[in-house]
Amino acid sequence: MYAFSYHRATTVADAKKAFSSANDAKFLAGGQTLLPTMKARLASPSDLIDLMHVQGFAGISVDTLAVTIGAGTTHATVHQSKDVSAAIPALSALAGGIGDPAVRHRGTIGGSLANNDPAADYPAAALGLGATIKTDNREIRADDFFTGMFSTALEEGEIITAVMFPRPKRAAYMKFPNPASRYALTGVFVAETAHGPRVAVTGAGSCVFRVTAMEQALAKSFKADAIAAIKVPAAGLNTDLHATAEYRAHLITVMAKRAVALID
């Protein structure tokens, strides 16, 4: 690991000031991706700005319309929250399936969304539920937030402060996990929302994406059989040592059917 300067911010303003005055700064939340990358000397920021002590950065609030989760809230806290479990059981279950206990107790929802790993779980929940990502200066719809592999609509120095998930009529998440990392080889989040069905896929492509053909079929009949014959093209999907693009395409339909069957 290369040398760097460490800053512990206590307010968003502190964090922004430290970021703007540094040569090549990175914000640090749970650090589950950034720190291993730095240890491997694949990243060498001049400054790390720790956000975990920012006032109000973590916490969960639930009302009749939505679940709002502070960006610094850990996966374990989301999973263990009775309020989240009651309002959006699928979100609670998803958080409980991220990584291992060590990752879940350090990793944060804001860090996961800002990193936008193509195999991460939270992007599927955000896109599948039509979430709104709140930052220090604006609100971004999930449909506009994820722009590519490890790429988002966040501007330089912009900080995620919270994520607002509208409460769905019903929802479920199913994934085929890598047995070592627990990352999704393919994961599918299905939700029946106030604006119709949404189907979001993670792990299969370079970035989380929606399957509109499945959404249209589920709008007519919210049954697993309604999407059984829908095939997602393998072109453009990921191929690696774990699975081919064709296999991931097959898994999308399998995982989607399982998710719908769980809640239909």
Summarize the structure in words.
With 264 residues, the chain is of the alpha+beta class. It folds into 2 domains: 5-50, 2-Layer Sandwich (Uridine Diphospho-n-acetylenolpyruvylglucosamine Reductase, domain 2); 60-263, 2-Layer Sandwich (Uridine Diphospho-n-acetylenolpyruvylglucosamine Reductase, domain 3). 34% of the residues lie in helices and 25% in strands. The chain has a 5-stranded antiparallel sheet. A 4-stranded antiparallel sheet has the order 11-12-13-14, with helices on both faces. A hairpin with a 2-residue loop joins strand 8 (146-148) and strand 9 (151-152). The longest helix has 19 residues, at 245-263. The protein is globular, with a radius of gyration of 18 Å.
The CATH topology assignment of the largest domain is Uridine Diphospho-n-acetylenolpyruvylglucosamine Reductase, domain 3
Question: Main sheet?
Answer: 5 strands, antiparallel
| Largest sheet, spatial ordering of strands | 4-5-10-6-7
Structural class: alpha+beta
Give the oligomer, counting copies of the same chain as homo and different chains as hetero: single chain
List the secondary-structure elements in sequence, H or E.
EHEHEEEHHHHHHEEHEEEEEEEHH
Percentage of residues assigned to helices:
25-40%
* CA(first)-CA(last) distance: 50 Å
Helices, by number, come to: 11
Mean pLDDT: 97
Poorly predicted runs: none
- The Cα radius of gyration reads 18 Å
User: How many domain regions?
Assistant: 2
CATH class of the largest domain, named Alpha Beta
Question: How many strand units?
Answer: 14
Annotated CATH architecture of the largest domain: 2-Layer Sandwich
Q: Which geometry do the CA atoms define? A: globular
Amount of beta strand: 25-35%
